[in-house]
Structures are given as structure tokens and as C-alpha cells.
Specification:
The protein has one helix and eight strands; from the N terminus they run ββββββββα. By secondary structure, it is an all-beta fold. The protein has one domain: YaeB-like (Elongation Factor Tu (Ef-tu), domain 3), CATH 2.40.30.70. A hairpin with a 2-residue loop joins strand 6 and strand 7. The model has no long low-confidence stretch (mean pLDDT 93).
């Protein structure tokens, strides 16, 4: 890697504990929050409000110990970390797709957030269905799993 990643902003959400945060934003589509970019990055938001959804890359800054194989939230069987979206990853990079409601200067109002409050933002990209949606994609091992709450005590 030629350079270090550095935060460009912070996520504000109603979720203050790991137990409160949903497994994915699709389970909490009405959860509102904001992505606050540091003022020096505001210019980079030009035209972002023309998109209905954005991809937010962030740092799992409160994730626990990285394990390459572990049970994820939707299954009790262990799976490889790269075959899951578990937060305890080697580089602790997370991704979420959220609905963009409004932009006020360097602050993006969003819904469908599934991230802890005060999480550092690494990058923002527009969600473009023509590029990002693959209707023929399969869900791998997740396809046979029912939605469920996070198992208690599991990181």
C-alpha cells in the first residue's frame, strides 16, 4: 500500500452500541443519520445530491479481534471472513448503501443507516444501479438463512 487511509468525516447515527445497530441497513430502512464530511472535503460533494443512494466506506473502529473464520450474525456455522460482512476483518473496512435524503453544505442526511454513531468515514461513492446492481447475482450461503436478530454476546 502506498499511502495510509485517513478519515474524511464522521457518521452520526442513533446507534451507540453494537447491540443496537442492525445487521444491515435493509433491516432498518427508516433509521436516519448523517454523514458529516470535514469542511476541506465539501467541494468533493458537488452534484452528490443528484443521486438517490450513496455507498459509504467506513472504518470498523470498534470491531473486536480479527478472526479469519468465525460464525457470522446470520448463521451459527463458521464461515471465512471474506465470505461474510463481519466487522472483525484484517483491514476493518466497512461498506453500507444508504438513501441520500438531503445535502446541506458538508452534511449528508441519510436513511437506512446500520453503522455506529461517531464512525470514521473513509470514502463516499454514488450508488449507480447500472454499475452496482446485478440481478443475476446469488447470495451464496446466506440464501438459505432467515433474517434474525444478532445473537447475544457475539462480536
Amino acid at each position: 500500500m502506498t499511502g495510509k487511509l485517513k478519515p474524511i468525516g464522521i457518521i452520526r447515527s442513533p446507534f451507540t452500541t453494537k447491540e443496537d445497530a442492525p445487521i444491515q441497513g435493509v433491516y432498518s430502512p427508516t433509521s436516519k443519520g448523517t454523514v458529516e464530511l470535514f469542511p476541506e472535503y465539501e467541494e468533493g460533494l458537488k452534484d452528490i445530491e443528484t443521486f438517490s443512494h450513496i455507498i459509504v466506506l467506513y472504518q470498523f473502529d470498534r470491531a473486536g479481534e480479527m478472526k479469519l473464520v468465525r460464525p457470522p450474525f446470520l448463521d451459527d456455522e463458521p464461515h471465512g471472513v471474506f465470505a461474510s460482512r463481519h466487522p472483525c476483518r484484517p483491514n476493518k473496512v466497512g461498506l453500507t448503501v444508504v438513501r441520500l435524503i438531503n445535502r446541506v453544505k458538508n452534511v449528508l442526511e441519510i436513511s437506512g443507516i446500520d453503522v455506529l454513531d461517531k464512525t470514521p468515514v473513509i470514502d463516499i461513492k454514488p450508488y449507480v444501479p447500472r454499475f452496482d446492481c446485478f440481478p443475476e447475482a446469488n447470495e451464496g450461503w446466506i440464501a438459505s438463512k432467515q433474517n434474525r436478530p444478532k445473537p447475544p454476546g457475539r462480536e
